[in-house]
Amino acid sequence: MNTPRGVRRTDTRLSDGRELIYYDPSDAPARVPLEDTRGLPAPQPQVELRTDPLTGDVITYATHRNTRTYLPPADQCPLCASKPGNPTEIPDHDYNVAVFENRFPSFAGPGRTEVVCFTSDHNRSFTDLSQGQARLVVDTWADRTAELGARDDVELVFPFENRGREIGVTLSHPHGQIYAYPFLPPRMQNLLRQARKHQEVAGSNLFADVLAAERKEGTRVVAENGNWTAFVPEAARWPVEVHLYPHRQVGGIDELSVGERDDFAELYLDVLGRLDGLYGEPLPYIAAWHQAPVRIDRELGYLHLELLSIRRAKDKIKYLAGSESGMGAFISDTRPEDVAETLRKAGQ
């Protein structure tokens, strides 16, 4: 397998046949996978896709997910390394980054869903990772993007992380997921529609022009380095929203150069630290990678990461009420320029 330079990949299978992949630094000792002794039955996911005739949106029904593990105590966490009395999804004594097929997938047959465990340390978060550990996660995302994007049944590869109970997290171990959609989700379709219009009128890439405008204007820029800029978008929907863009247009994480991956890890950890500094405690957030579609309108896409939080004050949550839920028309209590200034000061 052609894994990124500096990374060792080790493939194995869990007792029910699901794939498990370890990602280690290339200078780490060679890993000999241990057997999953749980004897799990073969998964039988119940997934149905329906198209809403009013909007054209694809809705996924995955009723088996109602039985998934919900906020277990730390000593029963299924994402920790296995130990006596608690055999887990990762049948080894320790790991750096581990990826496995979700036991309760949102997609089955066409598409695929995976879990990405960022570290074996249950009590850490992505914010606590060293730059080297974060860089290993970036290489993992890149490898999964390339492999999943090569499948005939995948239209978009979407790595993301949900953090915090307010977001709806069911497992507190530091982890993210990857959805390899068998269709283009509504948001990506909307982004491509706007990008296509912009291309026809301006003759240039919409996302590249947005980035250039934000860097020139400057008031919403939170932080930047040689290859990336983090900014609060001019029309942010969420109380806290930060987008991270590479300075070069690429379609996917797997297309990033070594230097671009290094700089992303550095800037991302910086921004996450600023978010946690807002209220002096871990901020609930969603981190959503926006990659170009696998085959449709790929040239219109522009890789970037969108970070958002529903917390609008230390003790207040932004709920999607009538206007947002009923009509999709967001009304925000926070001004993007003020949020950007607060985040800039959080890093001082």
From TrEMBL:
One of its GO terms (molecular function) is nucleotidyltransferase activity. Transmembrane segments: none annotated. Residues 111-185 form the Galactose-1-phosphate uridyl transferase N-terminal domain. It comes from the Bacteria. It catalyses: alpha-D-galactose 1-phosphate + UDP-alpha-D-glucose = alpha-D-glucose 1-phosphate + UDP-alpha-D-galactose. Its cofactor is Zn(2+). Its EC number is 2.7.7.12. Residues 196-305 form the Galactose-1-phosphate uridyl transferase C-terminal domain. Pathway: Carbohydrate metabolism; galactose metabolism. Keywords: Carbohydrate metabolism, Galactose metabolism, Metal-binding, Nucleotidyltransferase, Transferase, Zinc. It is an enzyme of class 2 (transferase). The keyword Plastid does not apply. Belongs to the galactose-1-phosphate uridylyltransferase type 1 family. This is Galactose-1-phosphate uridylyltransferase.
